[in-house]
Design a protein that fits this description.
CATH architecture: Alpha-Beta Complex
Strand content: 15-25%
Number of strands: 12
CATH class: Alpha Beta
Helix content: 25-40%
Number of domains: 1
CATH superfamily: Spore Coat Polysaccharide Biosynthesis Protein SpsA, Chain A
Bound molecules: cytidine-5'-monophosphate
Distance between the termini: 53 Å
Shape: globular
Number of helices: 7
Order of helices and strands: EEEHEHEHEHEEEEEHHEH
Radius of gyration: 19 Å
Length: 277
């Protein structure tokens, strides 16, 4: 589908920015134990770091945390133990089976809804003043506020979808689909994309709210419903909406494997030394 500006919402003007934090993953690649978002970093759960990182941006008002369905009360009381600025309101809602579903449920909760995505198009937008939505993985707890602010500024400057990203340092190979081969065999390479044209994307990804809600609605009800995307920008791209990149930050890395936990601890330790000076 081609992007039709008149069918999407008007560009955001002065308004409020809401954040959806999908934190409902189990994080199996980190090994068994506590859900990933609740693993401690510097003695504080990763999710608390992620919420604070978003709350540091003065544009941010409502924050919706999407928690594992069984852990909603525990996550709520955990977050209640870590105060946030007065301008920030916090909701905790149960997530779904995929990241995409968790984000959809979080979007619905910005407006105080509980069900699927209510459609804030021009005519039926909730009257809550939120016109920009950031989606930020709980697994990226250390994103600097300057990166958050840069994403918000680019959306407010008129881009419907903005993604922080960094150049790729490793050469990347594309391999054949796994269907017809033994997983124990070496993987056949089918292509080597030109590295200079590749970017590794991070979060928070920022959106004109109506654009993001429409993309999630289409992902449930549209012709390509059921094709999961690994990020929200992917859903928006499918609809022909332009997506732009701003410079990401190396400290916005995703905590996925045990080594990432060590790196995150090192970043925190360096920050506390810097703060001490
Ligand atoms: O699995 P992955 O690392 O891509 O997850 C990215 C983010 O999406 C994590 O913060 C995770 O908690 C969240 N997620 C979710 N609901 C799921 C799966 C992942 O909120 N069902």
């Amino acid at each position: 589908m081609t992007h039709n500006p008149s069918a999407e919402a008007a560009r955001p003007g002065p308004g409020r920015t809401a954040v959806v934090i999908p934190a409902a993953g189990r994080g199996v690649r980190l090994g068994p134990g506590t859900p990933k978002a609740l693993r401690p970093l510097g003695g504080v759960p990763m999710l608390v770091h992620a919420v604070r990182a978003m709350a540091r941006s003065t544009d941010v008002g409502p924050i919706v945390v999407v928690a594992p369905a069984d852990d909603v009360p525990a996550v709520r009381s955990l977050l209640d133990g870590h105060p946030l600025p007065d301008r920030v309101t916090l909701r905790v809602v149960p997530g779904g089976d995929t990241r995409q579903e968790s984000v959809r449920l979080g979007l619905a909760a910005i407006a105080g809804g509980t069900g699927g995505v209510a459609g804030p198009h021009a005519s039926d937008a909730p009257d809550d003043g939120v016109d920009v939505v950031l989606v930020h993985d709980a697994a990226r707890p250390l994103v600097p506020v300057a990166t958050v602010d840069a994403v918000v500024a680019a959306v407010r400057a008129g881009a419907p979808a903005v993604v922080p990203a960094l150049p790729v340092t490793d050469t990347v190979k594309q391999v054949a689909p796994p269907a017809d081969r033994d997983p124990a065999d070496p993987e056949p390479v089918v292509a080597t994309p030109e590295r200079a044209s590749l970017r590794a994307v991070q979060t928070p990804q920022g959106f004109d709210r109506a654009v993001l809600v429409a993309a999630h609605e289409a992902a449930v009800t549209g012709a390509d419903a059921g094709d999961a995307a690994t990020d929200c920008a992917g859903l928006v791209e499918r609809r022909g909406v332009p997506v732009v990149l701003v410079r990401g930050h190396e400290e916005a890395f995703k905590v996925t494997r045990p080594l990432d936990l060590l790196l995150a601890e090192a970043v925190l330790a360096r920050r506390s030394v810097a703060d001490g000076w």
